Every structure is written in C-alpha cells, then in structure tokens.
Amino acid sequence: MPQPLVLVERRADGVAVLRLENPKVNALSAELLRQLAAAAEALRANPPGAVVVTGGDRIFAAGAEITEFRSAESPHDVITRAEAELIGQLFLRALNAVADIPRATIAAISGFALGGGCELALACDFRIASEKARLGQPEILLGIIPGGGGTQRLARLVGPARAKDLIFSGRQVRADEALAMGLVDEVVPPDEVLSRALDRASALASGAVVAQGLAKRAIDRGLDITLNGGLDLEQQLFADVFLTEDARIGVQSFLDHGPGNATFRGR
Hints:
This protein has ten helices and twelve strands.
C-alpha cells in the first residue's frame, strides 16, 4: 500500500479537514494527486458541512514534483508530450474534484503556495492566508506554464492582466498584495490561519448546506456559459432547492420567528 499523503478528518461540527502530508514541501507528486482525487471524490459523494484544505505550517504546497518532469530514459531531457499529458490529467482530475465538492471549501494557507499549490488554493471557494504566506505561479521559471488550472482559475479570480503578470513573471506575491488583488480573502497572523479557517467552516456547516451547494453550482457553472444560460441554470436550481427539508424549515422559521433563526438539518 502506498504511504498516505492525503489525510481526511471529519469533525463533530460537520467540518472535514483535508490535509496534505508529503514531507518536506508537500510536493504534488503523481501519487499525492491520485490520493487527493480519491479523497475529494469521496467528499463529493458523501459531503460534510464544509471543507478546510490545509498543508504544513511552513509550506501549504510547493507545487509539482519536479523530478517527475525529467525523462527516466535520458536524465538530461524532459518527459515526452504524452507523459506531460498524463501528468496534466492527474492535476485536472484532482483539482476539479476539489472544486466540485458541493460544499464550501476553504484553503488555509500557511507559508508558501506555489505552482500546483497555488492552483489547489484556487480550486477552493475561499482562501485564508498567513501574514507570512507567499503565493505564485512560478512555472515560467522552468520554461513551462501552469497545468493545474492556473491560467484559467487565476484569470477568473483576479482578472486576465494580473494573471498574466503573475504567470509571465513567475514572481511570488506576499499576503498583503494577494489580499489587495483578490487572490486571497483574508489575512491573519500565522498562528491563527487554521483556527480561523475552521471557525469559518464551522459557521458555514451549521447553515443550509444543501442550498449553499446549489448556489455554488449556479455560480461556478454559470461563469462557463452565457448569461442567459446561467439564468436558466439558476431558475432550475431555485426550483430544486424547494425540494429540500431545509427550505421548509427556513421558510416556516421566517414566518414564525423572523429571519436568521432557523436551525437547518442539512437535508
């Protein structure tokens, strides 16, 4: 059996913590990506209330395992195009699986989130960073480009010009600059990153989580289609949500007690 590189803990408050455990720098090796995909797909099939994605205290994830980009047959050459396609598919499956978890996902970023590590954070709904965090897409410094969604998710999050600046230069941004450009949502002291992410996840997990998942689907899929297509999708999901027990509870609670007093069951 391969060494466990991705650990999942389901907490009593409904939050699942997905932790990378690949010393020393949490490199996203092929095996870690396989385990990450399997863990995320399990969370998608049996969703918790919310998910926190975290890594080490010093390094969230340093990116791809660069040794896997070197040809096994010729140490002075890079992998073939076909081999590169296989690695790209591993990244695509794993990070899409994280993005497709039908609950709120929060990246708790302590230290460096570079290359594939930054792409993993981008696959989450929210990003909480340490004051010492550094984020970036340094693939260009190897003569390559991001292959885990960086060119697409980063541009959608911070705009194409800022994404091109980061990707063309390969530079790392500090937490304050990342916050200013919208790359992260919150910056906290280093010893508060995980606790802040867990507190926020716990609050979300106590809400109408099925409705959150439907809203997430409407937003994420709506960005990939036309406005009219997105509006049609919203109408479909708006109707679907009234099939949930939480909708019945929420509407009745509002009529009986006013807004903000419902106790949802996540069904």
